[in-house]
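Re: that chain you flagged

S.,

Sorry for the slow reply, it's been a week of failed gels. I finally had a moment to sit down with the sequence you sent. For the record, here it is as I used it:
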Amino acid sequence: MNRENSLLKAAWLIAFVTVISKFIGFLRDVCIANYYGAGLISDAYFYAYQIPSLAIILMGGVGGPFHSATVSVFAKLINPDEKMPSEKVNKLFNSFLTITFIFFLIFSIVIFIFSEQILGFIIHSSNTELVNIASLHLRIMTPVILIGGIIGIYYGLLITYRYFLLPNISPVLMSLSIIIIIAFTKGDKFGISLAVATTIGAFLQFLLQLPAVRKLGYRIKPNFDFKNNIELKNLVELVFPAALSSTIGQIYVYVDMFFASQLKEGAWTAIGYANRVFQFPVGILVTAFLVPLFPIFSRLVGEKKYDEIKYYFNKGVGLLNFVAIPIMFGIIMLASDAVQLIFQRGEFDSQDTYMVSQALIFLSLAIIPYVFRDSITRIYYSFNDSKTPFFIAFSSIILKYILNALFIEKLGIAAITLSTSLVTLFNAFILGCIMHKKINLEYKHYFINLIKMLVAAILAFSIVLVIYKHWYINSGNWLMLAFRTFGIFTLFMIVYIIFASAFKTEYVGELIERIKNYIKRKVIR
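Prediction finished late last night. Pasting the structure tokens below so you have them in one place:
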């Protein structure tokens, strides 16, 4: 019970700081959309940013392979309550840091030298201006690649010591850098300020983590003790396939970039904005629950308490689904209004709104498999198994390409996000089947609750949709648009909870009970 209460407190803290981070990220995207719309410059920046983002978000971010490997190995070696790490742990930390720095240094040099050739290959377009501007952006952002993995190690170490705040709030620095710099330059012709601001923001993230790591007692200095180091070998064996898996995930993105470049100008920017809107609620949910849950999984695996793993998995994924399902239906109903409300101003027009909302609706179908896939992947990592997720991700590249090719002509931009949802479902299904052979996670319990929640959401959607269609507003009235968007979603949530409660969905009763207890404590005080 103490562990569960601690988990929930950590989840609330992470959710709070992630909301702040995502909100600032939204302001960043609104600022970029205002000055650049969805056109040549924004496409060039977002095409170029995919490679640095591989390092600093996918590999080095919270949940990335460097973060996950650090948590998985160090959680078994240290006691978070100890004031100072042992000499052995300190040396392991520095060895891992050194080998990571060397790898990313080589990677960044190669990217800098061959940036034009790389982007020319990825962007399937005869627009040489687009390739040239994107190449310039990529060269400016090359230093972001260098520090990506290092930030990931810092994140993992801090989270192992239950320092949840810094790793989840530091991405705000990049968003703030972009907002301040492009507002100051007022959107320069080639978007150079975007690339410069991104690089500055990445270095600020690194500098913010450094004092906290040193305060834990870790002396940061190069250590080339790579031979006969069992713990380092375990780290590398975890990181390498997991990094390849992240790279495979990025190959999905490159496949999407290839097809998006065949569509109208601004298509790739629209997909990027749709993904950011999608990640705002879903990223908060997944990060809030899985970041504190992952160290628990790792310790339970070390203690061979598999029944507890089953309990926390079903509990965590069930709660995530309970909130994720109404978000999915809310996006389907309100995508156009939400995108208009967030982005449509300045250079971002109604046609841009249409492109983003179409991409967002089909992307929302990925929410349930996304939650399941990311949750069960943490169990694989807890067993020091990052190879299985890698091979499954690798096997679905061809599927991603085929689905894009099949849908692109009829659905246009929506084809790319629909294929993403279907591939996510495929990966979640295969991961779940393989894990079932290792641990019986009692999927029957999971699916019973999932079906109850889906039926409750469908009934609520049918009722609220009628009200939505009869609630006419003047599209130019921003205040009324905001009122209708939030009002309809709030009404949908109320009706959804009523139906879910009527079906005796497990998590509704617990949620209501916790709210009652919270109110009682406040009244007593």
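What I noticed first: The chain has a mean pLDDT of 80.

Talk soon,
D.
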